Amino acid sequence: MTVTLSASVPTARTRRRSPVNRSRVAAWVAVVVIGLFGLAPIYWLVVTALTPDDRAFSFPPSLIPTEITFEHFARLAENPQLFQYLANSVIVSVITAILSVIVSAYMAYAFSKFRYRGRRSLMHLVLASQLFPQALLLVTLYAVFSATGLLGSYTALILSFTTFTLPLCVWMLKGIFDTVPSTLMEAAAIDGASRWRTLHTIALPLAAPGLIAAGLFAFVRAWNDFVFALTLADPARQTLPPGLVHTYLGEFQTAWPDLMAASFVVSLPVIAAFMFLQRYLVGGLTAGAVKG
Amino acid sequence: MRKLTNGQFAWLLMAPGMALFLAIIVYPLVAALVTGFFEQSLVRPGRTFVGLANFADLLGGDFWPVLRNTLVFTLGATVIPFLLGYALALALNSGLPGFLRGLFLFPWVIPGVVVSFLWLWIFNANYGVLNGLLGTEISWLGQPGTAMAAVIVTKTWASFPWMMVMLLAGLQTMPRELHEAAAVDGAGAIRRFRSVTVPHMKGIAGIVFLLEFIWNFQHFDTIYVLTGGGPAGATKTFAVAVYDTAFKGFDLGHATALGGLWMVLLLVLMVLYLRKEAS
Amino acid sequence: MNTLNRRDALRLLGLSTLGVTALAACAPDASGGTPQGDIAAKSFGFTSWSLNEEAQKAAVQAIVDGYAGSNGVKITAASFPYNEYLNQVTLKLRGGQLTGAIQLDVAWLGALAATGRLRDLATPAAKGGYTDVALSSGRTGGKQLGLPWTTGSIGLIANTGLLEKAGVDGMPATVAEFEAALRKVATLDGVIPYAAATKAAQLKDILPWMRTFGSPLLAEDQITVGDDPSVAAVEWYKKLYDAKLIAPDVDRFDARALFAQGKAAFYDDAIIARGVVEIQAPDKSLTAKMVPLSRPVLKAGDSPQALLWGHVIAVVEGEGADAAAEFAAHATSDTATVAAFFEKVKLPPTTTAGLADPKVSGDAFTTEWTEKITKTATANPFWRYAGYAQIETAIAEQVQAVLVGDSSAKEALAKATETAKDLQK
């Protein structure tokens, strides 16, 4: 737990050398131990994907594969449907992320910067809605989408996921708007800017990193969902989680190596995007979420 | 436009969100809560009003063991990833290379279903890599004690990355001067952690913990794939019980009643929490 | 932020109460509904999980395309994963979103019959030339709601190679002989003698054993699980478990994988098993050593027990139902079609003519299976209840409690029956 302190060390002098090293060592130990836990399963996923079908169930399994095959990866290329699922997932998750950010930013701004009747009750209602089993919403939600003719469309998925991410996004963004000093907005008002303009030219740009962070959370929610994606989208618009289950977990057979190969490949683009965006993820949260 | 009061303007901003919220969460939620007072089947048409009978059935039956399992799972799968995420965030905040952070996001973006199946594969008693590694023949998912541990480990693996990210964000806003001042005053590392880092992190840590707690209370996939609630009901949580009742037993009445009880329980917890926070 | 004082709490409560009362009256009941649409329409849907399963999709698609092409109808195919299939079909039937023909597992027929939306197919069933046992698999509540597409059974499969190695002569015919054989196999290193299902999902495999010991399971709507024979069956299972003759944490997929690795001498499976084992087995001669056997009986002369298993095609009343029924009859009873289907997927056909087709009768494994197992197979009596899966789960959970030592067989089964009684509807 001395870990955080290394940054402060250079300023305080005397007996400083050894704590530097000690906290560094502690940090590395923590990273290695947790890293082993975090990455070993990924390693095993890759190893399984490289194992020939008839070796997949041998025991004890060899930690370093003795026989490697790329057939499971090659087979992916022959399965255009998988890429359709990937495309659906990307479409649904990206639009969900964007829509969530827009809708929840307005809502959070209203919660943060204005005082009006019902504000507090609504904030609590939004939070409390998280407390009911979502699987049970499905039964009625199905009827709602069926009645509006949206059933089976991307829209049904996007609207559902956007709504499910609202509580978290609103909460996060409200924290961020709370830190934007009201004086800035008052100054803008004095200069004659409308509330609408103040929101767009002052508040939103200041909250930009937070918006990206909220968007990433919304993305992951949509990306991971199984039950709603399966039920509300028709087969041609199904996302990866139901798609993978459908393709590899059959009535009679579970194609483990194929499932692992497919999961690995389809996760790569998202990992790459996250690696690129993670500095916003961390940077964006620093402003507001801390205050809560 | 200029004539709008601040209150009206705020409602205008909230309109799209509220519309979605009412249509997609509130309406189905209310419809479901109402169903809890009926005897209603998912397959058979029609329904009968039965008052509180469904609730009485539940409270006189399996409710308590399920509550116990839910609490064990929820606490375990919240506290452990929280501690891991915190430790990792502290470590990464001490100037380790940035790409490590990205590496740890891997478990977070692999689709949840796949995570469950990956661990099912690892824990398998007869050809799983865990037994291979340890040289044991333990039926991890086949015994009540280890089965609960196994689902908690799996959920921990999937959760600690996002908690780490949030906590790291908090750590990065901590003004350096605070630590420096404390160090000059001669405070040791542990003292400084307790008197500087912990108070600074209280807000974000509280949120991360609360959200993960609520989500775990809801959590379904991992348990369902790994154990299906077994063995002998040892990992049957509310989420699994509700799903089984509604979609295997087709008994919407009891399922929604259980959902209602669960919501009341969480509401009480939430009110207590917010009260405490306020004082 | 987020202080919640009493007034807020009351307001929240008031708001929700208001909402509940307001909507209580008009909360939707999407179930029911009457058939709509043009019954004589020439286009209909076909919902089938096999349409998306690697091993079968080409064969099923060929039937669909072939029929659509030669009969001038339009078939819209849809598909859900097997494990989610029943839920999805139920939701879509409730919402009136599902029309045409649907593939069903025989176990699900009772549940879907409760919706009242399936057409009685008695007329095409009478003309199809189906075998009696096949027809019985599509019948529930006195109506023929499904045309049998494939009829088989869940039965015991043995690895004769392992039995030979362990010195077991001939196939065990009684429970005592079976247990003795298991004990011999147990001397082999790293082999699970009987990879019986011990995970809740397939612990229902114990039901045929309960019958073997003499429990009827269900007598005139009275669940008899908990009677002496069923208790004896569970105690026997527990004995095998403690002696490590059966292993913990095994489901059908695990059992099959173990068998394919040559690490299990016996296990329960459907006839389709052979194809899967063929892919998974490192030892390519294993399929030659795979034989089906009749489930051992308690005393010589008893009839061996097996669980009936299969797929049927049902038809939803409404849009395109006439054409869908014709398609269902064609897919399940046209001899050329079913024989070609068998050749590709090894699922046994359901008509006398289909079974007699040389493509089918020439397959020794299938013939043997039909003779030794399917012939005496009976349906799971709980299937007639919509909540059958939960009844099975209730029993499975209690049997699991016995296996892990939490409960005695007698107490556990009494408790299971108590739970199951509430689900008989």
Protein architecture, described:
The complex is a heterotrimer of chains A (292), B (279) and C (425). Helices cover 73% and strands 0% of the residues of chain A. With 292 residues, chain A is mainly alpha-helical. In chain A, helix 3 runs parallel beside helix 6 and helix 3 runs antiparallel to helix 8. The longest helix of chain A has 34 residues, at 17-50. The two termini of chain A are 24 Å apart. With 279 residues, chain B is mostly helical. Chain B is 74% helix and 2% strand. Chain B contains 13 helices and two strands. In chain B, helix 2 (53-59) crosses helix 13 (252-278) and helix 3 (63-93) packs across helix 10 (189-218). Chain B starts with 5 loop residues before the first helix and ends with a helix. The relative contact order of chain B is 0.14. The mean pLDDT of chain B is 85. Helices cover 46% and strands 14% of the residues of chain C. In chain C, strands 1, 2, 3, 6, 7, 10, 11 and 12 form an eight-stranded mixed sheet that branches. A two-stranded antiparallel ribbon of chain C has the order 4-5. Chain C has a two-stranded antiparallel ribbon with strand order 8-9. In chain C, helix 9 (206-212) crosses helix 10 and helix 11 crosses helix 12 (273-280). Chain C starts with 5 loop residues before the first helix and ends with a helix. Classes of the chains: A mainly alpha (292), B mainly alpha (279), C alpha/beta (425). Chains in contact: A-B, A-C, B-C. The interface between A and C is large, with 39 and 47 residues.
Keywords:
heterotrimer, A: 292 residues, mainly alpha, globular, disordered N terminus, B: 279 residues, two-stranded antiparallel sheet, 13 helices, 74% helix
Characterize the main sheet of chain A.
none
What percentage of amino acids of chain C are in beta strands? 5-15%
The level of helicity of chain A is over 70%
The Rg value of chain C, from CA coordinates, equals 24 Å
Taken from the alpha-carbon principal axes, the silhouette of chain C is: globular
Q: Low-confidence parts of chain A lasting 5 or more residues at pLDDT below 50?
A: 1-17
Order of helices and strands of chain A: HHHHHHHHHHH
- Summed up, the helix count of chain C is 20
First-residue to last-residue Cα separation of chain A? 24 Å
**Beta-strand percentage range of chain A:** under 5%
Distance between the ends of chain C: 50 Å
Number of strands of chain A: 0
Oligomeric state of this protein: heterotrimer
Low-confidence stretches of chain C: 23-33
Number of helices of chain A: 11
Structural class of chain C: alpha/beta
Helix content of chain C: 40-55%
Q: What's the total count of β strands of chain C?
A: 12
Radius of gyration of chain A: 24 Å
